[in-house]
Write a structure and sequence with these properties.
By secondary structure, the chain is an alpha+beta fold. Helix 2 packs antiparallel against helix 3.
């Protein structure tokens, strides 16, 4: 019996040793302490937005032709009304010269016939006076009056010819405007399609022909970003915005909503968005921005100071979090009631207290309620 008792004791010790060494090891997890801070309700764009110019125009001549004059190059600053490009139009210039000569000729013709009309009217008046005195017959007086009326009509016709010639001259000048491009505002030449001597083709609506000159006014910039259609009813003009750009990492630029598109864009069947335009609050403080920069916007809907908050990533489906129990070294599931939230923080209205520690490394295998864990300082969330 003694021998059996010894064997049983040895087996029991070995079993305990095996159970001890084979027990599940505590899972190292990242913990975050529930603390007080600021929480904002925000909306972010679904796809990258773009820095746009307040004024941008893609200029093309109304008719096609060979480029005879190109007065700018890409990157040049231009003034409103400056001639940028002109096509060959010697035929139009010749027509304009002919019209100018016709105007001058018509003017001289007016002088000629109108002077004759004045003299004829004077003669008709004299003949009428002589008839009253009985010196000439009525037929003679009537002939003079008729001749005066004819010459006055000829004078009026000559004046009409002048107006016609001037209208024709204006028409030739309009035609000349069809081959020239002038800057509609002060700006920078972004792109030029075509070189001196090449043929330039106009770009009518609906036809993807590159414009001759792309002109932008980079003195006034804004951000255009697509927002999910379900968020559109929450967005209003004047709401504060935080703008970030890939080109300026770490820099947050304040802005405000200036326009919400009145329609939904369906770029893709599964992605329906509403375009939102954002002005910079302090344009002079943004530094040098380039048109076309990618930008992200975060619209601030509401905000609260000094509220209990936790990382949004720590909340599981159903509003549950895993609370670390320091006494048992295990995780406990806790239901929380939340308030304002964004991608970073969520306000806690009930279920947690300041100083509680919750798990943020939910992606680790085995992390669940009842699991034994140890705090992992290296993986601790910032």
């Amino acid at each position: 019996m003694r021998r059996i008792a010894v064997v049983v004791a040895i087996v029991a010790v070995l079993g305990l040793a095996f159970a001890w060494f084979s027990r599940p090891k505590p899972i190292p997890v990242a913990l975050r302490e529930v603390a007080v801070g600021k929480v904002e309700a925000t909306l972010a764009n679904t796809r990258a937005g773009t820095v746009e110019a307040c004024q941008r125009t893609k200029l093309s001549t109304i008719i096609g032709g060979r480029i005879e004059y190109l007065g700018v190059k890409e990157g040049d600053r231009v003034r409103k009304g400056q001639l940028l490009l002109k096509l060959w139009n010697d035929d139009q210039q010749a027509q304009a010269a002919l019209s100018q000569a016709q105007v001058a000729l018509a003017g001289k013709r007016v002088d000629e016939v109108c002077i004759a009309a004045v003299n004829a009217e004077k003669e008709a008046k004299r003949q009428a006076e002589l008839r009253d005195k009985g010196f000439v017959s009525a037929s003679r007086e009537e002939i003079a009056r008729t001749e005066a009326e004819v010459k006055r009509a000829a004078c009026n016709t000559a004046k009409a010819d002048v107006a016609q010639a001037e209208a024709k001259l204006k028409a030739t000048r309009v035609e000349q405007g069809r081959v020239a491009l002038y800057a509609p505002f002060d700006g920078t030449v972004a792109k030029i399609v075509g070189e001196l001597g090449e043929y330039s083709t106009p770009s009518p609506p609906g036809v993807p022909t590159p414009p001759a000159i792309d002109l932008i006014d980079d003195s006034c910039l804004y951000v255009k970003a697509p927002m999910d259609e379900v968020d559109a009813p929450k967005i209003a003009v004047g709401q504060p915005v935080r703008v970030t750009l890939d080109a300026l990492p770490g820099k947050v630029i304040p802005g405000k909503v200036r326009r919400v598109a009145p329609y939904v864009s369906a770029v893709e069947k599964q992605a329906r968005t509403v375009d939102v335009e954002v002005d910079f609050v302090q344009p002079e403080a943004t530094g040098k921005l380039l048109v076309g920069y990618s930008a992200d916007v975060e619209i601030i809907l509401d905000g609260r100071e000094q509220v209990l908050r936790i990382p949004t990533a720590a909340i599981q489906e159903g509003g549950r979090v895993l609370l670390f129990n320091a006494d048992s070294g295990k995780l406990e599931e806790r239901k929380v009631r939340t308030g304002l939230a964004n991608w970073e923080y969520t306000e806690v209205l009930d279920g947690l207290a300041a100083g509680d520690r919750i798990v943020t490394s939910l992606e680790k295998e085995g992390v669940k309620a009842g699991a034994a864990v140890v705090p992992d300082d290296k993986a601790r969330a910032k």
